[in-house]
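task queued by scheduler; priority normal; single chain, no ligands, no partner chains; default sampling; output format set to C-alpha cells
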Amino acid sequence: MEIIDYTNELVSFYEKYKDSKIVLSNEEIQKIMKKWMSTSSYNLLSHSYKNYEIIFGLDNGLCFTKDKILQPGSSKDVKVLEYSYDFLPIKILSVHPSFEYSISESQKITPIFFNLKEYEKIFDKINTELLGSFEEKITRELHDSQNDVLIELDKDGDGKVDIVDGNEFSLLLQKHQKSIVEVDRNYVQQFVKVSSYLKTKRGNIQSVFDSIKDTPNKEILNECVDILKDEMNTYNLLLFNSLNMVVSLVEDDMITFYEIYEMFDKLNIFDSKHERDVSQRLTNIGDGIVSLLYELRSVGNQITDSIGELSYVTETSNQKLTERLLEVDSSLQVNNFLTAIQTYQLNKINKSTRNLRG
C-alpha cells in the first residue's frame, strides 16, 4: 500500500479550522501535557505523544503528526495509525467518539482524484455537518443541564430559587421590640441591619440563580451551581443564628447572645456594604461572573467557618427557638432547618475529602 505525505494538507486544514473549539495547536497540546493533574489524553499519555512531531490535534486526544496518526487507545498507550491512500482527514475524523459520524467506503477519495479544490469542498461539508452537529450537541446538552438545575432549585417553577424568605426574623424583631429596647435601644438598630443584610443576600442569591441560564459552558455552569448552593447554605446559617440571637436576648441568655453578636460583628454582618456592592456588580455582571463567583465563595467560606465555631446550639436552644417562632405563626421547622444545614456541610466535607484522596 502506497504511503502518501499529507502534511501540507493537514497544515492547511489546521489553519482553516484552528478557531474551532475542538482543534488544538501544537503549542496548546504541549501546555496540556505539562498541566498538573490534567485528565486529558495528552497529559495522561504524554510519554507517547512526545515521540512524534505534532502538527495539531483534536480535543479528544486524536493527534496528527508528521508521520503517524495517534488515537487514544487503552489507559496505558495510544494506537498508532499509518497514513494510507484513503483520504486521510475523513477517515480519521470519522472515528472521533464525540461525533457519531461516519463516511461510507464509496465516499473515500483516492490520490488520483485528490486536489486542493476537492479537499476544501469536502472539508466544507465536514465543517457544516460534522462540526456543526457537534456544536449543536454541546449547546443542547448545556441547555438540558441548565434546565435540570433550574428545576432542582426552583421546584414550584415560579422563577424564584427555593430558599427561606427570612420574614421570621422581622416578625420576631417586631414582636419583641419593647423587650429589646429595655435591654439596649441600640440593639434594635443592629438587628435591623442584620435584616437588611439577609434581604440583600437573598436578592444576590436570586441574581446568581437567574444567571444560570446564561452560563456559556458546562464548566462555568458547574462552578455557578456549586457556589450558588454554598451561598444558599451560608444564608441559612446566617438566618438560623440571627433568629437565635434575637431569642437569646429575649430569653435573657446573654452568653449566647454575645457569642453570636460578637461573631456577627467580626464578620461585618451589621454592615451590608459588601452585599450591596455584590448586588450592584451582579446587576452589571457582563463577562465577569466567574471572578465574582469566586469572591462570593471566599466570603461565604469565611462566614461558614467562623459560624461553625459557635457552640451554643442544643436541644434546649432549638426548643426555645421553635416556641418563639410559633408565636409569630412561622411554618419554619427548626430541627429540619438545622438538619438541612448540617447535612449540606457534612456532604461538602466528604466531597472535599474524596477530592484530596483522588
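post-processing summary
- The mean pLDDT is 77.
- The chain has 15 helices and five strands.
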